[in-house]
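Backbone-to-sequence.
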C-alpha cells in the first residue's frame, strides 16, 4: 500500500506539472487590447487564539498529558494521523516520506477534487536543537472547478516544538489570515482555512517551526506532515517529512548545597518536572517583563508549596491572583504558591509573574535573578533609560547644506522695465541684513581630529557671531546618547571669505553639527552682477527670468563638499507668441467588457469572448469661426468583434 501511495503521488505531481499551464490563462487579447481574467478569492479576517496565563492551560509541552480537558481536540476529531517513523528509515528524503495505508486510501478516494500538495524543500533537517526549520510545499487546484472549503493543515509533535504565541509566525511574513491551531495528546495541528479554491490556484507555502532546547534527550526525531482538506476530507498530503536533531548541550541540575551562599545558575526548567521555570518574556519596547512557571497537576501532591523570590532591583513586581488549583501569598518580593489539597482544573498550566522594569540611569544589559525553592536562576535583559536612542552612525560621513530658498532675500531683488522698454534688475540696500543659513555635519565611528576649511562666494561674507556647534555622542555599545554644546573659540579662524576649524578632537560614535550664517556683502555689487547676467540672457524685451548662484565650498577632513544657494529673478516684458498645442482628449477609446471569466469547451478549447470597442471623436476641440461642424457633436464609431 505504501508503494501504491507513492506511485499515486508521483502521478498527481506529473499531472500538476503538465496540465496546470492549460488553466493559468489570465488574459485575452483582441486587436491589441487586453481583457483581464477576473479571479475571485475570498479574504478572511485574522483569527487569533487568546488564552489567559494565570494558571490556565496555555501550552502542552510535556510528553505525559493524560486526562486533558475539553480544550484539547481528541484523536477522533483529527482527519489523519501519521505512523511512527522507523529509526532505521531516515537515510534519505524519499524513504522518509511514509504513509499510513488508511490515509493513502482516503487520499485516493478524494483525489478527484484535483487539489494537490507538492513537496518543495526542507531546511535544517539535521541540526542541533534550537534551530528554526522549515517545510516548503505547494498547493494547487488543477481541476476545472473550484474546490470548496479548503483547509491546509500541518501536523507535528508538540513535545519538541516551541509554541509560537502568534500563530502567523508558523507561516512567517506570508500575509496569511484565518489561521488556527489545536492539539491532541501528541500532536500540534496548525490550520490555514483558505475557503473556496478557484481553478488555476497555485501557491507556495513555507511552514516554520523551532525545536526547544530544554529537552533532556540526545537525539530527537520530528516528523512533519502537510495535508490539504476539502469539505473536511483529506484529499492529498506529503509526509511525514522527517527532521533529525541532536542535543549536544544537555544540562543536568546540580545538587543544592544548603550550606553554600553562592549563587547557582540552573538551566531553565531543570529544577522540577512538576513545577519548573520557562524562558522569561521581555518586551523591550514596553518594558514588560514576566517570569513564567509551568506546573503539572499529575505530578504534584495536594498541599505542595513553592517559594519564588525575585530580585527587585530592576523590576516592579505586580500582585498575583489565586487560582482554582492554588493560592498565592506575596510578601515584598517573595511569592508563596501553595497548591490545594484537592486538585482540580486543567492538568497543566502556566503561572506568569508580570512586572515592569524600573527606570535606569544607563541603557545597558541588566541581570534579573530569582530563586525557586532556594535555587537561583538569572537572565540578562537590556533596559533603556528614558529618552535614550540608539546611534545611527554606521560610517565616516560629511555633508554641507544651505537653506533651499529664502523669501526675504528674493523679495529684495526685483526685475523691472522702464517706459522705453528697457529691462533691468534692482537690489534693495538692506539685503545685507538677510541671513543665509549654512550647516556642516561630520560623523565618525572611530573618533579623531576634525579639520574644516570653508570658502564663500565673493559676493558673500560670514556673520562671525552666528557660529554654533553641537556634539551628539554615544557609548561604545551605541547607547546613552549625550548632547553637548561645543565652544569653537579656540578652534575657529575667520579670514575674509574663508574660515577654518583645526584641532578639535571628536570621540568615537559621535556627530558634530556646525551652523553659521552668511550675508550679501555689497548690495550694489550684487545688482551689477545680476544686470550682467540679464544682459547675457538676451531677453530682447520679452518677459523672462535670470538665475543666479552663490557658490560655497568646504573641505571636511579631506572630503570636498558644496553648498550652492540658487535664486531666480523674474523680469517683466512683452509676452512671447504662444504656439497652440494640439488639443488633448480629441479621440477616446473604450472596451466592454473590461474583464471576463475564461470558459472552456469539453475539449479544453477557450470559448471566444465577445468584445465591443467604442471610439469617441470630440470635434468641439477644433472650435473655429465659420465652421460648419456642430461644436458639441460627438461622432461614435462602434463595432462588434467575435
Amino acid at each position: 500500500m505504501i508503494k501504491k501511495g507513492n506511485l499515486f503521488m508521483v502521478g498527481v505531481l506529473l499531472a500538476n506539472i503538465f496540465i496546470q499551464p492549460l488553466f493559468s490563462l489570465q488574459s485575452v487579447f483582441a486587436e491589441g487590447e487586453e481583457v483581464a481574467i477576473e479571479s475571485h478569492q475570498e479574504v478572511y479576517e485574522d483569527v487569533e487564539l487568546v488564552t489567559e496565563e494565570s494558571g490556565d492551560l496555555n501550552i502542552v509541552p510535556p510528553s505525559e498529558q493524560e486526562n486533558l480537558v475539553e480544550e484539547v481536540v481528541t484523536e477522533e476529531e483529527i482527519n489523519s494521523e501519521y505512523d511512527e517513523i522507523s529509526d532505521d528509515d531516515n537515510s534519505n528524503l524519499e524513504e522518509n516520506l511514509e504513509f499510513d495505508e488508511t490515509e493513502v486510501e482516503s487520499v485516493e478516494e478524494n483525489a478527484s477534487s484535483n487539489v494537490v500538495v507538492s513537496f518543495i524543500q526542507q531546511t535544517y533537517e539535521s541540526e542541533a536543537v534550537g534551530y528554526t526549520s522549515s517545510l516548503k510545499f505547494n498547493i494547487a487546484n488543477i481541476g476545472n472547478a473550484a474546490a470548496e472549503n479548503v483547509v491546509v493543515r500541518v501536523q507535528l509533535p508538540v513535545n519538541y516544538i516551541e509554541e509560537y504565541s502568534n500563530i502567523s509566525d508558523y507561516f512567517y511574513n506570508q500575509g496569511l489570515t484565518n489561521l488556527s491551531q489545536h492539539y491532541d495528546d501528541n500532536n500540534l495541528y496548525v490550520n490555514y482555512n483558505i475557503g473556496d479554491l478557484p481553478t488555476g490556484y497555485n501557491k507556495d507555502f513555507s511552514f516554520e517551526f523551532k525545536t526547544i532546547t530544554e529537552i533532556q534527550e540526545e537525539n530527537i526525531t520530528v516528523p512533519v506532515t502537510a495535508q490539504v482538506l476539502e469539505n473536511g476530507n483529506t484529499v492529498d498530503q506529503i509526509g511525514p517529512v522527517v527532521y533529525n536533531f541532536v542535543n549536544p548541550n544537555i544540562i543536568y541540575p546540580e545538587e543544592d548545597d544548603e550550606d553554600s551562599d553562592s549563587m547557582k545558575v540552573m538551566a531553565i526548567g531543570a529544577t522540577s518536572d512538576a513545577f519548573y521555570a520557562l524562558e522569561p518574556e521581555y518586551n523591550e519596547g514596553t518594558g514588560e517583563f514576566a517570569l513564567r512557571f509551568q506546573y503539572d497537576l499529575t505530578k504534584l501532591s495536594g498541599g505542595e508549596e513553592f517559594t519564588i523570590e525575585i530580585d527587585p532591583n530592576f523590576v516592579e513586581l505586580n500582585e498575583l491572583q489565586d487560582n482554582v488549583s492554588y493560592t498565592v501569598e506575596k510578601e515584598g518580593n517573595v511569592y508563596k504558591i501553595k497548591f490545594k489539597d484537592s486538585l482540580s482544573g486543567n492538568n497543566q498550566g502556566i503561572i506568569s509573574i508580570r512586572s515592569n522594569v524600573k527606570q535606569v540611569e544607563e541603557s545597558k544589559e541588566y541581570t534579573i535573578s530569582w530563586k525557586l525553592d532556594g535555587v537561583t536562576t538569572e537572565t540578562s535583559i537590556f533596559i533603556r533609560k528614558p529618552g535614550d536612542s540608539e546611534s545611527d552612525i554606521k560610517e565616516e560621513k560629511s555633508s554641507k547644506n544651505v537653506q533651499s530658498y529664502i523669501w526675504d532675500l528674493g523679495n529684495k531683488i526685483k526685475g523691472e522695465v522702464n517706459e522705453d522698454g528697457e529691462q533691468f534688475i534692482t537690489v534693495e540696500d538692506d539685503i545685507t541684513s538677510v541671513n543665509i543659513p549654512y550647516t556642516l555635519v561630520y560623523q565618525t565611528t572611530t573618533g579623531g581630529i576634525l579639520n574644516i576649511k570653508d570658502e564663500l562666494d565673493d559676493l558673500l561674507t560670514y556673520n562671525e557671531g552666528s557660529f554654533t556647534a553641537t556634539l551628539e555622542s554615544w557609548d561604545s555599545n551605541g547607547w546613552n546618547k549625550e548632547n553637548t554644546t561645543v565652544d569653537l573659540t579656540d578652534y575657529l579662524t575667520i579670514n575674509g571669505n574663508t574660515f577654518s576649524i583645526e584641532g578639535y578632537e571628536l570621540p568615537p560614535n559621535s556627530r558634530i553639527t556646525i551652523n553659521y550664517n552668511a550675508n550679501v556683502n555689497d548690495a550694489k555689487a550684487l545688482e551689477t552682477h545680476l544686470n550682467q547676467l540679464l544682459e547675457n540672457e538676451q531677453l530682447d524685451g520679452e518677459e523672462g527670468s535670470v538665475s543666479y548662484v552663490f557658490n560655497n565650498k568646504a573641505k571636511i577632513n579631506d572630503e570636498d563638499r558644496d553648498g550652492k544657494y540658487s535664486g531666480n529673478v523674474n523680469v517683466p516684458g512683452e509676452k512671447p507668441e504662444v504656439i497652440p498645442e494640439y488639443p488633448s482628449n480629441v479621440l477616446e477609446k473604450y472596451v466592454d467588457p473590461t474583464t471576463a471569466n475564461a470558459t472552456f469547451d469539453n475539449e479544453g478549447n477557450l470559448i471566444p469572448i465577445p468584445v465591443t470597442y467604442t471610439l469617441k471623436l470630440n470635434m468641439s476641440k477644433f472650435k473655429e469661426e465659420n465652421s460648419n461642424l456642430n461644436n458639441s457633436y460627438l461622432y461614435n464609431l462602434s463595432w462588434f468583434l467575435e
